[in-house]
Amino acid sequence: MRKRTSGLDHFGRILKISVIVMNLLLALLGMAVFGSGVFIAADRLYFTSIVFGMPILAVSSYCFLAAGVLLIIVCVFGCMGALYEKRALLFGYCIVLCIVFMLSFSAASLSIVFRSWVQDQVRTYMRSTLQSHYGINLTNPWNAEVTRSWDAAQQRWYCCSVEDESWGVYRASLWYEIQPGVVESTKPYVPESCCKKSQYGQYLNPGKCQLFDRGPPSKQSRELNEGLYYRGCYEAGKEILYPVSAYLIVMGLILCLCVLAGIVMSLCLYRLV
After folding, report:
1. Helices marked H in the chain
2. Quick one: 111 and 139 in the same domain?
3. Is the pTM of this model over 0.85?
């Protein structure tokens, strides 16, 4: 058996060092991708799939999580394969990098699809779930999840209902039918999650937020209800999630290019050792 180290010429030794350096860079990139995926999935997307009815962006972030973990692990074997010139390790390394490439490409593609699909059908879905499942029969797991997700979205995105100043959706909902009180007097127009909070986490004016009849949601007098969010969750969600999807697209393309470079370099070294 020939010695691997002595079998490499000057170009091969440079390529070997380049593969090791590329692996270190890919490992750092994998850590960054994994950290970003965790932050986005936990902080931005845990209720998005229910409110928007589109799990696409969440799936994209999970693809990044998987790609980051694989990249961190496989770079160890890539460095060992290059350092000790082990063909089996280099070949396996290339196979796993191909999987990482597909995950990254899928994540970027799904984010692009998300940006193109957030249209009128999403508005229709949001109205439907809000009217038929929000705040009723909470022993039903789906209704409980819809309620929890909408409450989280309205508080995190500082919004109410679907479109701007469209609280009539709540008045046409099953939630409104079961609310106690007298219509146009003591029956709340909107849930508490539509109400603004102070910096200390207390509702500013929940009574006026839910019961004020001279301003929104009836909108007849156009008087200001300072305790209520005027922004609709459709536009508020788009405003927050579009930058997230753009970040996932850019990160996915960068990761694809870097992984592709790693595959090409490791295959060249595989042929030389």
Report:
1. 10-43, 48-52, 56-83, 87-117, 120-132, 141-156, 168-171, 174-177, 206-211, 233-272
2. no
3. no
